[in-house]
Automatic annotation (TrEMBL):
<protein>
    <recommendedName>
        <fullName>Animal haem peroxidase</fullName>
    </recommendedName>
</protein>
<dbReference type="Pfam" id="PF03098">
    <property type="entry name" value="An_peroxidase"/>
</dbReference>
<dbReference type="InterPro" id="IPR037120">
    <property type="entry name" value="Haem_peroxidase_sf_animal"/>
</dbReference>
<dbReference type="InterPro" id="IPR010255">
    <property type="entry name" value="Haem_peroxidase_sf"/>
</dbReference>
<dbReference type="InterPro" id="IPR019791">
    <property type="entry name" value="Haem_peroxidase_animal"/>
</dbReference>
Length: 461
């Protein structure tokens, strides 16, 4: 094939999608090259810019938000991975689905075909992923007491028995993923024992029943354990009928708007019970060997039980400067880069405007750019000699808007009303679309956990 004159443009487009853009800022528009900050003009009369990842700013914002046990940070990350994996359309071919716009295709494609079915854990299943599942037992390739997933080859730690490599990004998330895999194996073994010995495909039946039971447990944990930690209390009390009056945001707004607000939650260190720095827990390269980390004793009660004295967190208008997932770049810079590549996603986006239009006026009026800027400046920024303007709010990407709302109106480290509505509605819509069976009649004594610490205790018993 002849290379056309637009080859350089094509290469530039690929580079832009994989994160080579240099113009990284939290706001839309041009002329704002500062990463991780709300940028002001050069006028000497203006207050200094806000750096949402500055140490002093972080400490001031998080001080009254440290109410949620820190483990929910990484449980939320696993939920986010189960909801979607947004892939730049320039990188991976994809099939157009019914309802997709042909004239103006999205910039990103959701590679998770079935949200909230634990596709992030199971992938395409044992017949397709022999590196992940033992081909005789159809169990996950993981030991009964394994702390993390197993390396497929001892000399190459990057090839592991894990379906979604994103679940290695932070060591705590990796441990949570391993716990879910062990939970499945325990259930599959019990189903296998309960099924008649003469069944021709007994192992596959046990696998399928275990997966369905795990998924029932997963949805119960999301609804009864995770959401109550992060939702505004008034939103959490909405009936399903009232909740369904609100529109459902699209996959890109969910993945790169709503879920990125959870990046406010990682703390700079965690009580294991020994204090461990976040920087040591973040995967720098797929080649990293995590055996040393897996030997660190971890008391899960400190991560998931409110009254155990563990590290607490919350959603605020700040990021931990210690959260540097790749190449020493802070998470706010990575998020800003993606937000710039995706284009404007602010309060004036169609999905967000549709939700705001349905909200009670006393809630939505507080989110008018002028009101939000004034309240945030007076209550948060001004005491530190800073300012947020109406024009900057109008240009902010939606994940930062939700963090600002949480800082002002979120109680006990939770989202504010808008962030809570977006999350609650999207999750309930995804769960409503899942079709599964209840296999408990085959093994009626199986555990039915409704909080994650119960799964931890089950697999460690």
């Amino acid at each position: 094939m002849k290379i056309t004159a637009t080859a350089d443009e094509t290469i530039a487009a690929f580079e832009g999608e994989v994160g080579h853009r240099k113009d990284q800022s939290w706001v839309s528009g041009t002329g704002c090259p500062i990463a991780g900050a709300i940028c002001h003009d050069a006028s000497p009369s203006r207050q200094p810019k806000i750096d949402f990842a500055a140490h002093s700013w972080r400490e001031a914002c998080i001080v009254d938000k440290k109410c949620i046990p820190a483990g929910y940070t990484y449980l939320g990350q696993l939920i986010g991975h189960d909801m979607g994996h947004a892939v730049p359309i320039n990188q991976v071919p994809y099939a157009v689905r019914p309802g997709d716009s042909v004239s103006s295709p999205p910039r990103r494609h959701n590679a998770i075909e079935n949200p909230l079915t634990l596709e992030t854990l199971y992938g395409a299943g044992p017949r397709v992923l022999p590196h992940l599942f033992d081909q005789e037992t159809l169990l996950f390739r993981i030991g009964r007491k394994s702390i993390i997933t197993l390396a497929h080859r001892g000399d190459d730690p990057s090839v592991r028995a894990i379906a979604d490599a994103r679940n290695r990004d932070v060591h705590i998330l990796h441990r949570i993923t391993a716990i879910m895999m062990r939970y499945h194996n325990r259930l599959a073994e019990r189903f296998f024992a309960a099924l008649p010995a003469n069944l021709a495909d007994r192992r596959m039946l046990a696998f399928c029943m275990a997966r369905n039971h795990v998924l029932h447990s997963w949805h119960a944990i999301i609804r009864k354990d995770f959401l109550p930690q992060v939702l505004d209390a008034q939103i959490a009390e909405l009936s399903m009928e009232d909740l369904r009056q609100y529109p459902v945001i699209d996959a890109v707004t969910m993945q790169h708007g709503l879920m990125r607000a959870f990046h406010a939650m990682p703390r700079k260190s965690y009580k294991f019970p020994e204090q461990r720095d976040l920087g040591a827990l973040v995967l720098r390269s797929p080649q990293d060997n995590e055996h040393k980390l897996s030997r660190w004793p971890l008391d899960w009660a400190l991560f998931f039980t409110p009254d155990e004295g563990g590290t607490k967190t919350g959603i605020s208008a700040s990021f931990s400067p210690a959260f540097r997932p790749r190449g020493g770049v802070t998470i706010d810079q990575l998020d800003a880069r993606t937000a710039r590549d995706l284009g404007p996603q602010g309060l004036d986006g169609p999905d967000i405007k549709a939700v705001l239009a349905q909200m009670p006026s006393d809630w939505s009026s507080r989110l008018e750019p002028g009101s939000l800027a004034q309240d945030f400046t007076s209550e948060v920024a001004a005491p530190m000699g800073l300012e947020l303007t109406e024009a900057e709010v109008q240009r902010c990407h939606i994940h930062l808007i939700l963090m600002i709302e949480a800082q002002l109106y979120g109680k006990s480290g939770r989202f504010g009303p808008l962030g809570s509505l977006l999350l609650y509605r999207k999750i309930e819509d995804a769960i409503a679309n899942v079709r599964m069976v209840d296999p408990s009649a085959v093994a009626p004594d199986l555990p039915r956990p409704n909080c994650f610490i119960q799964i931890i205790n089950e697999v460690n018993s």
